[in-house]
Write a structure and sequence with these properties.
alpha/beta, 10 helices
Protein backbone atom coordinates (compact mmCIF):
# COMPACT_ATOMS: atom_id res chain seq x y z
CA UNK A 1 0.00 0.00 0.00
CA UNK A 2 1.38 3.42 -0.94
CA UNK A 3 1.92 5.96 1.82
CA UNK A 4 -1.16 8.13 2.38
CA UNK A 5 -0.93 11.90 2.44
CA UNK A 6 -4.25 12.27 4.30
CA UNK A 7 -4.10 9.30 6.72
CA UNK A 8 -0.35 8.69 7.04
CA UNK A 9 0.89 5.52 8.69
CA UNK A 10 3.16 7.23 11.24
CA UNK A 11 0.25 8.59 13.32
CA UNK A 12 -3.38 8.16 14.24
CA UNK A 13 -5.08 10.97 12.34
CA UNK A 14 -7.66 12.75 14.48
CA UNK A 15 -10.32 14.58 12.47
CA UNK A 16 -12.29 17.22 14.38
CA UNK A 17 -15.99 17.65 13.56
CA UNK A 18 -17.43 21.12 12.86
CA UNK A 19 -21.09 20.90 11.86
CA UNK A 20 -22.75 24.05 10.50
CA UNK A 21 -26.24 22.59 10.42
CA UNK A 22 -29.46 23.07 12.38
CA UNK A 23 -30.20 19.35 12.60
CA UNK A 24 -27.06 17.21 13.01
CA UNK A 25 -27.71 14.51 15.60
CA UNK A 26 -25.13 15.68 18.15
CA UNK A 27 -24.41 19.38 17.72
CA UNK A 28 -27.02 20.59 15.25
CA UNK A 29 -28.01 24.20 15.75
CA UNK A 30 -24.89 25.15 17.62
CA UNK A 31 -23.85 27.68 14.98
CA UNK A 32 -27.01 28.13 12.90
CA UNK A 33 -29.57 30.63 14.11
CA UNK A 34 -32.90 32.00 12.89
CA UNK A 35 -33.19 32.45 9.16
CA UNK A 36 -30.38 29.94 8.51
CA UNK A 37 -27.83 32.51 9.64
CA UNK A 38 -24.48 30.92 10.49
CA UNK A 39 -22.57 32.56 13.32
CA UNK A 40 -19.27 32.61 11.43
CA UNK A 41 -17.24 34.07 14.30
CA UNK A 42 -18.44 31.40 16.73
CA UNK A 43 -17.82 28.65 14.18
CA UNK A 44 -14.29 29.92 13.51
CA UNK A 45 -13.63 30.05 17.24
CA UNK A 46 -14.75 26.44 17.53
CA UNK A 47 -12.55 25.46 14.61
CA UNK A 48 -9.55 27.15 16.18
CA UNK A 49 -10.31 25.29 19.42
CA UNK A 50 -10.27 21.98 17.54
CA UNK A 51 -6.89 22.92 16.09
CA UNK A 52 -5.54 23.92 19.50
CA UNK A 53 -6.73 20.59 20.92
CA UNK A 54 -4.60 18.76 18.37
CA UNK A 55 -6.83 18.02 15.39
CA UNK A 56 -4.88 16.98 12.30
CA UNK A 57 -7.85 17.83 10.06
CA UNK A 58 -10.98 19.94 10.61
CA UNK A 59 -14.04 18.51 8.87
CA UNK A 60 -16.67 21.15 8.05
CA UNK A 61 -20.18 20.08 7.07
CA UNK A 62 -23.25 22.01 5.95
CA UNK A 63 -25.76 19.17 5.51
CA UNK A 64 -26.79 16.66 8.13
CA UNK A 65 -26.52 13.01 7.11
CA UNK A 66 -27.95 11.59 10.33
CA UNK A 67 -30.54 8.80 9.94
CA UNK A 68 -33.75 10.31 8.60
CA UNK A 69 -32.15 13.59 7.51
CA UNK A 70 -33.50 15.33 4.44
CA UNK A 71 -31.15 16.80 1.80
CA UNK A 72 -30.61 20.54 1.52
CA UNK A 73 -30.00 22.51 -1.70
CA UNK A 74 -26.37 22.87 -2.72
CA UNK A 75 -26.63 26.67 -2.60
CA UNK A 76 -27.67 26.57 1.05
CA UNK A 77 -24.95 24.10 1.93
CA UNK A 78 -22.36 26.35 0.26
CA UNK A 79 -23.67 29.45 2.03
CA UNK A 80 -23.27 27.71 5.38
CA UNK A 81 -19.74 26.43 4.91
CA UNK A 82 -17.84 28.74 2.55
CA UNK A 83 -17.04 31.67 4.90
CA UNK A 84 -15.98 29.31 7.67
CA UNK A 85 -13.72 27.24 5.40
CA UNK A 86 -12.16 30.44 4.03
CA UNK A 87 -11.47 31.70 7.53
CA UNK A 88 -9.99 28.45 8.78
CA UNK A 89 -7.84 27.96 5.68
CA UNK A 90 -6.40 31.47 5.97
CA UNK A 91 -5.69 31.20 9.69
CA UNK A 92 -3.98 27.82 9.90
CA UNK A 93 -1.93 25.25 8.02
CA UNK A 94 -4.14 22.47 9.37
CA UNK A 95 -6.01 20.94 6.42
CA UNK A 96 -9.72 21.62 6.18
CA UNK A 97 -12.00 18.87 4.92
CA UNK A 98 -15.50 19.40 3.57
CA UNK A 99 -18.14 16.85 4.50
CA UNK A 100 -20.37 16.75 1.42
CA UNK A 101 -21.90 14.39 -1.13
CA UNK A 102 -22.27 17.02 -3.87
CA UNK A 103 -19.76 17.97 -6.56
CA UNK A 104 -20.99 21.57 -6.63
CA UNK A 105 -20.44 21.96 -2.89
CA UNK A 106 -17.07 20.24 -3.03
CA UNK A 107 -15.91 22.63 -5.75
CA UNK A 108 -16.97 25.71 -3.76
CA UNK A 109 -15.25 24.37 -0.65
CA UNK A 110 -12.02 23.56 -2.47
CA UNK A 111 -12.02 27.00 -4.04
CA UNK A 112 -12.40 28.42 -0.52
CA UNK A 113 -9.33 26.55 0.70
CA UNK A 114 -10.42 23.04 1.69
CA UNK A 115 -7.92 20.31 0.82
CA UNK A 116 -9.90 17.12 1.45
CA UNK A 117 -13.41 15.98 0.54
CA UNK A 118 -15.23 13.59 2.88
CA UNK A 119 -18.04 11.94 0.90
CA UNK A 120 -20.12 9.68 3.13
CA UNK A 121 -21.81 8.21 0.03
CA UNK A 122 -18.59 6.93 -1.54
CA UNK A 123 -19.38 8.74 -4.82
CA UNK A 124 -22.76 7.01 -5.16
CA UNK A 125 -24.74 10.23 -4.67
CA UNK A 126 -22.82 12.39 -7.17
CA UNK A 127 -20.05 10.60 -9.12
CA UNK A 128 -18.89 13.95 -10.58
CA UNK A 129 -17.46 14.76 -7.15
CA UNK A 130 -14.44 12.59 -7.99
CA UNK A 131 -13.62 14.70 -11.05
CA UNK A 132 -13.78 17.85 -8.94
CA UNK A 133 -11.48 16.39 -6.28
CA UNK A 134 -9.02 15.27 -8.96
CA UNK A 135 -8.95 18.71 -10.57
CA UNK A 136 -7.99 20.33 -7.26
CA UNK A 137 -5.48 17.58 -6.31
CA UNK A 138 -7.58 17.07 -3.19
CA UNK A 139 -7.70 14.12 -0.85
CA UNK A 140 -10.88 12.07 -0.84
CA UNK A 141 -12.41 9.99 1.95
CA UNK A 142 -14.86 7.43 0.56
CA UNK A 143 -17.60 6.48 3.00
CA UNK A 144 -19.90 3.47 2.84
CA UNK A 145 -23.61 4.19 2.56
CA UNK A 146 -26.40 2.27 0.89
CA UNK A 147 -29.22 4.53 -0.22
CA UNK A 148 -29.88 7.96 1.26
CA UNK A 149 -29.68 9.22 4.86
CA UNK A 150 -33.46 9.69 4.92
CA UNK A 151 -34.07 5.97 4.32
CA UNK A 152 -30.80 4.19 5.09
CA UNK A 153 -31.99 2.53 8.30
CA UNK A 154 -34.92 0.82 6.59
CA UNK A 155 -34.53 -2.84 5.62
CA UNK A 156 -30.85 -3.10 6.60
CA UNK A 157 -29.46 -6.44 5.48
CA UNK A 158 -25.98 -7.94 5.10
CA UNK A 159 -24.94 -11.55 4.60
CA UNK A 160 -21.28 -10.74 5.38
CA UNK A 161 -20.98 -7.12 6.45
CA UNK A 162 -17.18 -6.90 6.31
CA UNK A 163 -16.86 -8.41 2.86
CA UNK A 164 -19.80 -6.48 1.43
CA UNK A 165 -18.64 -3.14 2.82
CA UNK A 166 -15.09 -3.81 1.61
CA UNK A 167 -16.30 -4.75 -1.86
CA UNK A 168 -18.45 -1.63 -2.17
CA UNK A 169 -15.61 0.57 -0.94
CA UNK A 170 -13.30 -1.05 -3.51
CA UNK A 171 -15.81 -0.10 -6.19
CA UNK A 172 -15.87 3.48 -4.88
CA UNK A 173 -12.07 3.58 -4.95
CA UNK A 174 -12.03 2.33 -8.53
CA UNK A 175 -14.35 5.18 -9.53
CA UNK A 176 -12.06 7.67 -7.82
CA UNK A 177 -8.98 6.22 -9.53
CA UNK A 178 -10.81 6.38 -12.84
CA UNK A 179 -11.24 10.11 -12.29
CA UNK A 180 -7.50 10.49 -11.77
CA UNK A 181 -7.11 10.42 -7.97
CA UNK A 182 -4.05 8.40 -6.90
CA UNK A 183 -4.13 6.00 -3.96
CA UNK A 184 -2.01 8.26 -1.76
CA UNK A 185 -4.88 10.76 -1.71
CA UNK A 186 -7.61 8.21 -0.91
CA UNK A 187 -8.99 6.77 2.31
CA UNK A 188 -12.05 4.70 3.21
CA UNK A 189 -14.63 4.94 5.98
CA UNK A 190 -16.89 1.94 6.74
CA UNK A 191 -19.77 4.27 7.59
CA UNK A 192 -20.58 3.36 11.19
CA UNK A 193 -24.23 4.15 11.80
CA UNK A 194 -24.94 4.63 8.10
CA UNK A 195 -27.39 1.91 7.14
CA UNK A 196 -26.09 -0.54 9.73
CA UNK A 197 -27.46 -2.22 12.83
CA UNK A 198 -25.57 -2.73 16.09
CA UNK A 199 -23.86 -6.04 15.17
CA UNK A 200 -22.71 -4.58 11.83
CA UNK A 201 -21.25 -1.50 13.52
CA UNK A 202 -19.40 -3.58 16.12
CA UNK A 203 -17.95 -5.89 13.46
CA UNK A 204 -16.69 -2.98 11.38
CA UNK A 205 -15.34 -1.13 14.41
CA UNK A 206 -13.22 -4.15 15.31
CA UNK A 207 -11.99 -4.87 11.76
CA UNK A 208 -9.81 -1.94 10.74
CA UNK A 209 -6.82 -4.02 9.70
CA UNK A 210 -8.94 -6.43 7.69
CA UNK A 211 -10.73 -3.57 5.98
CA UNK A 212 -7.41 -1.97 5.09
CA UNK A 213 -6.15 -5.27 3.69
CA UNK A 214 -9.30 -5.83 1.64
CA UNK A 215 -9.42 -2.32 0.18
CA UNK A 216 -5.70 -1.50 0.03
CA UNK A 217 -6.44 1.92 1.54
CA UNK A 218 -6.14 3.50 5.00
CA UNK A 219 -9.21 3.47 7.20
CA UNK A 220 -10.98 6.33 8.98
CA UNK A 221 -13.76 5.52 11.48
CA UNK A 222 -16.36 7.86 12.93
CA UNK A 223 -18.00 6.44 16.07
CA UNK A 224 -18.36 9.75 17.90
CA UNK A 225 -21.53 9.83 20.07
CA UNK A 226 -23.46 7.67 17.60
CA UNK A 227 -26.65 5.85 18.48
CA UNK A 228 -25.15 2.36 18.29
CA UNK A 229 -22.97 3.31 21.26
CA UNK A 230 -26.12 4.18 23.17
CA UNK A 231 -27.68 0.87 22.17
CA UNK A 232 -24.70 -0.94 23.65
CA UNK A 233 -24.14 1.20 26.75
CA UNK A 234 -27.61 2.53 27.50
CA UNK A 235 -26.22 6.08 27.59
CA UNK A 236 -28.14 9.04 26.18
CA UNK A 237 -26.45 11.23 23.59
CA UNK A 238 -24.96 13.69 26.06
CA UNK A 239 -23.33 10.87 28.07
CA UNK A 240 -21.63 8.95 25.26
CA UNK A 241 -18.18 10.51 25.67
CA UNK A 242 -16.70 7.51 27.48
CA UNK A 243 -18.17 5.05 24.99
CA UNK A 244 -16.81 7.16 22.13
CA UNK A 245 -13.29 7.03 23.57
CA UNK A 246 -13.57 3.28 24.10
CA UNK A 247 -14.74 2.83 20.51
CA UNK A 248 -11.90 4.98 19.16
CA UNK A 249 -9.35 3.04 21.19
CA UNK A 250 -10.66 -0.33 20.05
CA UNK A 251 -10.79 0.82 16.44
CA UNK A 252 -7.18 2.00 16.48
CA UNK A 253 -5.94 -1.10 18.30
CA UNK A 254 -7.75 -3.16 15.65
CA UNK A 255 -5.97 -1.29 12.87
CA UNK A 256 -7.82 1.92 12.00
CA UNK A 257 -5.63 4.76 10.75
CA UNK A 258 -7.78 7.67 11.92
CA UNK A 259 -10.84 8.68 13.90
CA UNK A 260 -13.43 11.41 13.34
CA UNK A 261 -14.58 12.91 16.64
CA UNK A 262 -16.12 15.86 18.43
CA UNK A 263 -13.76 15.75 21.47
CA UNK A 264 -10.33 15.98 19.87
CA UNK A 265 -8.14 16.29 22.97
CA UNK A 266 -9.59 13.20 24.64
CA UNK A 267 -9.42 11.19 21.42
CA UNK A 268 -5.76 12.12 20.95
CA UNK A 269 -4.93 10.78 24.41
CA UNK A 270 -6.97 7.60 24.01
CA UNK A 271 -5.74 6.73 20.54
CA UNK A 272 -2.11 7.47 21.41
CA UNK A 273 -2.24 4.67 23.98
CA UNK A 274 -4.16 2.36 21.64
CA UNK A 275 -1.59 2.89 18.88
CA UNK A 276 1.30 2.25 21.29
CA UNK A 277 -0.31 -1.02 22.37
CA UNK A 278 -0.90 -1.99 18.73
CA UNK A 279 2.71 -1.27 17.83
CA UNK A 280 3.92 -3.21 20.88
CA UNK A 281 1.92 -6.20 19.67
CA UNK A 282 4.32 -6.22 16.76
CA UNK A 283 2.10 -7.15 13.82
CA UNK A 284 1.01 -3.58 12.91
CA UNK A 285 -2.58 -4.90 12.86
Amino acid sequence: MVESTILPSYRVTVVGVLNLTPDSFSDGGRFVGPGERVDVEAALEAGHALAAAGAHVIDVGGESTRPGARPVPAALEIARIRPVIEGLAKASEIPVSVDTRKAEVAEAALEAGARIVNDVSGLSHDPALATVAARFDAGLILGHLRGEPATMQRCVHFEDVLEEVAAELRASADRARGAGIPDERLGVDPGLGFGKQLPHNLTLLASGAELRQRTGLPVLVGPSRKSFLGEQSGDPLEARGDATLAACSVAVYAGADGVRVHDVAAARRATRLARALRDTRGDRA
